[in-house]
Amino acid sequence: MDHKNITTLGELKKSGWTSSSVKDEMRKNLLTKIKNKEALFPGIMGYDNTVVPQVKNAILARHDLILLGLRGQAKTKMLRMLVAFLDEYIPVVKGSEVNDDPMRPVSKFAVELIEKHGDDTPIEWLHRERRYGEKLATPDTSVADIIGDLDPIKAASKKLALADEEVINFGLIPRTNRGIFVINELPDLQPRIQVALLNIMQERDIQIRGFNVRIPLDVSIAFSANPEDYTNRGNIITPLKDRIDSQIITHYPRELSTGIKITEQEAWTSRNGSITVRIPDLYRTIIENVAFEARKSEYIDQKSGVSTRMTITAMEQVISSAEGRAALNDEEETDLRVTDLYAMVPALTGKLELVYEGEQEGAVNVAKHIIGKAINKTFKESFPDPQSRKREEKSNDYDVILNWFSNGNLLELPSSLNDNTYKNRLDEVDGLGNLVESKLPDLPGSKYPIMDMVIEALHQNSKIGKDDIDDVHTYTDMLGSMLGGMTGFDDEDFNEEDPY
């Protein structure tokens, strides 16, 4: 139907257009997408077998729903994508504040307009993007914001009594009539405000300031909430929970590969500038492992969660570190390094809620500890475990490297080192390049970031010492350093017996 040619109620009737409720409309369009094998929530990863099927069933059942999960689990993003299940355009009575259906008007304004003009009543077409309303629940949210209130100024200017329906100033939900309305962080909404939603959820109407008239609404309502909010900031009142038809639990990526894809999709990595920063696949894995390690760390409050936004901002921080170094050295391209990985510390400290033990260690130390664990875990997936007793000592993969350090050599890697000097210094370490080439013969890209990672991993396994002063990483023989290992952290991964 070419809606542009239909501008009056009479023309709409002749076109054969029929009214349907929002939820029936969403059902119809969802079924069409399913039949056409279309992606229901494009860009949402890791939910294909968990959250998406439940949301799909809720829509098909014409349910109001709530997405319940920790921060950074794409709850709001998914809810905003519900708009895709609406028709592209619907007709509304022109000038209506509540998007009146020309065939079934509910407001006094629309009813009187149709009575006056009949089939000549003007209509306009509303795009689905304008049929979505959203409110972040805050303690100062009022019933007037959500539902509406009487407007004395409107009454005075139009010389109307306060009992006249025309003096109502509609709130967000009535203005989203025939659309989707979302309330984020529902527990933050005061209980008395939640009570105001009960009629809408069950009877599908609103009543303002004791008005005798009740205005029936056609709206699909969805919520988001964080389980931690139930105790920290408030709760969802029981009658409202009872009226929410489907409660769907969200979660963090369960597989590392999914997390890597999410970070790659969301992070600002293609800067379109004069400097190219190459990101080795193992470094992408390290950055994602930071989140996985944080989500099981004893220093982090797991009830608060570790947002996927952390790895996105971490990726952007490490790229910026490499970008700045390349600019300083007047280089057009560079690879990520271990010193760049530690540049993500500010991205972690602001997003990790620490328990008492973590507070004692300090946010920066906990962040560095988690980065170190992520490097060590990624390292052990491609290289032999330096702590393993199962290997014969004669075939120790790391002896040549460790002997180089024990002979009094040190490796100094300032964060600002230019590429040529960086490579030369790593090449000076006996056996390091050969180890990487033998264990990763098909390695795409440069071997030097991986050589850098091996050195850092040997430190994480207490095989060589490390001193950090003013962004300069200096690696030395373990016996010559009192700073080796992760001093101060009582972590079982670092309590294994040293076989050397």
Strand content: 5-15%
The poorly predicted ranges are: 482-488, 490-500
| Main β sheet profile | 5 strands, parallel
Helix-strand makeup class: alpha/beta
Gross morphology is: elongated
Tally of DSSP helical segments: 23
Helical content band: 25-40%
**Sheet with the most strands: spatial strand order:** 4-7-10-1-11
Total DSSP E strands: 16
Q: Work out the count of structural domains.
A: 2
What would you say this structure looks like, in words?
By secondary structure, the protein is α/β, with parallel strands linked by helices. It has two domains: 3-140 and 175-185 and 216-249, Rossmann fold (3-Layer(aba) Sandwich), CATH 3.40.50; 256-494, no CATH class. The chain has 23 helices and 16 strands. It has a five-stranded parallel sheet. Strands 14-16-15 form a three-stranded antiparallel sheet. Helix 13 (256-266) packs across helix 15 (309-328) and helix 14 (281-294) packs across helix 15 (309-328).
Task: Give the SSE layout.
Elements: H1 9-15, H2 22-35, H3 51-60, E1 65-68, H4 75-80, E2 89-93, H5 108-117, E3 123-127, E4 132-136, H6 143-146, E5 148-150, H7 152-158, E6 168-170, H8 172-175, E7 179-184, H9 191-195, H10 198-202, E8 205-206, E9 215-216, E10 219-225, H11 229-232, H12 238-243, E11 246-249, H13 256-266, E12 276-278, H14 281-294, H15 309-328, E13 333-335, H16 338-341, H17 345-349, H18 356-361, H19 363-380, H20 399-406, E14 411-414, H21 419-427, H22 432-439, H23 448-460, E15 464-469, E16 472-477
Parallel strand pairs: 1-10, 1-11, 4-7, 7-10, 12-13
Antiparallel strand pairs: 2-3, 5-6, 8-9, 14-16, 15-16
Helix pairs in contact: 13-14, 13-15, 14-15, 14-19, 19-23, 22-23
